[in-house]
Amino acid sequence: MRGRSTPRGPLTTAREQQKSTAMKTEWIDANRANWDERVPVHLAAKSYDLTALRAGQGRLHTIEEEELGNIAGLRVLHLQCHFGRDSLTLAQRGAEVVGLDFSAPAIDAARGLARELCLSRRARFVLANVYDARDALPEAAAFDLVYVTWGAIYWLPDIRRWAQIVAHYLRPGGTLYLAEGHPSALVFDDLARAADAKMPGWFAPYFQSEPMVIDDARDYANADVVLTHRRQYSWMHPLGSIISALRDAGLSLAWLHEHAAVPWPMFDCLVAGDDGMYRWPAQQWLPLAFSLRATSR
Question: CB burial class (10 A; 0-12, 13-18, 19+) of residue 255?
Answer without folding.
Answer: exposed
